[in-house]
Amino acid sequence: MIEHNLLSASKLYTNIRFDELGTLLAIDPRKAEKIAANMIGQDRMRGSIDQEEAVIHFEDDVEELQQWDQQISGLCQALNDILDGMAKKGMSVPV
User: Fold this and answer.
1) What is the structure's pLDDT at 5?
2) Which residues is 17 bridged to in the sheet?
3) Scanning 4, 17, 33, 39, which has the fewest C-beta atoms within 10 Å of its C-beta?
4) pLDDT tens digits, residue range 18-77?
5) Which residue range or ranges hold the PCI domain (predicted)?
6) What whole-number distance in Å separates Cα of residue 28 and Cα of residue 5?
7) How far apart (Å, rounded) are the C-alpha atoms in residues 19 and 80?
């Protein structure tokens, strides 16, 4: 549950102090830092930790969204190509 809430916080914040994160998760700030470090280290969450400033900087998933968007566009183009090919052969497809 704590990891789920931490992941949710990473979607809402660009950065957060350890003490604020601890309050948000209702745990000790040191434990919040440790959990975040483990999740980042295991690639389950994108971000970096600034221990001097006691802040976690979250990274957004812009690359992943762009890749997903490109895959959807490719799928739509492939479907259009199939439908165009069918139309050229005189096959009608109700849309």
Assistant:
1) 92
2) 55
3) 4
4) 999 999 999 999 999 999 999 999 999 999 999 999 999 998 766 767 888 899 999 999
5) 1-63
6) 15
7) 53
